[in-house]
Write a structure and sequence with these properties.
Layout (H helix, E strand, L loop, with lengths): L3 H14 L5 H4 L8 E8 L3 E2 L3 H11 L4 E4 L6 E2 L4 E8 H6 L1 H24 L6 E3 L9 H10 L13 E3 L1 H7 L4 H6 L7 E5 L2 H9 L4 E5 L3 H11 L4 E5 L7 H6 L4 E3 L2 H4 L6 E5 L3
Parallel strand pairs: 6-11, 7-8, 8-9, 9-10, 10-11
Antiparallel strand pairs: 1-5, 1-12, 2-4, 3-5
Amino acid sequence: MAEAPHRDVVRRALEEDRAADDVTTRLLGAAARRPACAQFVAEGRLVVAGLPIVALVYAELDHTARVEALRVEGECVAPGAVLARVRASAATLLSGERVALNFLQRLSGVATLTRRVVEAVAGTGGRVTHTRKTTPGLRALETYAVTVGGGVENRSSLAGAVLWKDNHWALLGSGDLARALGAAPSGLPVVVEVEDDAQLERALAAGVRHILVDNQAPQQVAAWVRRAGPEVTVQASGGITSETARAYAEAGAQLISIGALTHSAPAAPIRLDVLPQ
């Protein structure tokens, strides 16, 4: 994970929490300035993601703080596992606690949910990916967590690929799809969503080689996979869960995009314990 793009996100989070103005910790007096050690502990089974961000949080508060990662990104751990230790002043440990936990719990939660779906489709050839349904300002981190969980990267912004959807169809009307798509920048991936047989035929006639099937049953996906042929990538989306993902993969969808990976993943249960001195 490249550090530089995420420093601003970390700084904004620390400013939001007013970490430099921790009025409670100041009440400890001299004890707040003494060296201390704390550790992040898993309270449930989870996939670890976000330890580099924890290190950034504490580096922003105190360049002398030391974060020792005891697990690796993407590792599945059991309850009680110690994920990392931090050595710094007591004030630094406590001032960064909530922000560090927010990042670690959030990203580990995304990675954990992603791993569940990846395991559900294992052996099918289907790959799990994300959507753009992310927390504003945290997209890069949340989609990173999807890859840590075993998912693959997808379009991360409106500029990353052409994604022709229902509203584009509505505005095009009976216009020439091939002509519209032909104006796309050279080399940019082109994905076209289809909602019925007529749209599928228009997309195939326009030379589209990646179609998106949204909110359709696995049986419909299978039918369109057969019609499209092996040269066309079929991506399924729309309310797919870890319980239903395998049916879509077995129907022939090569990609399965799930918004819930980022918009609905529960925070992973992790706590920070200051160790006795």
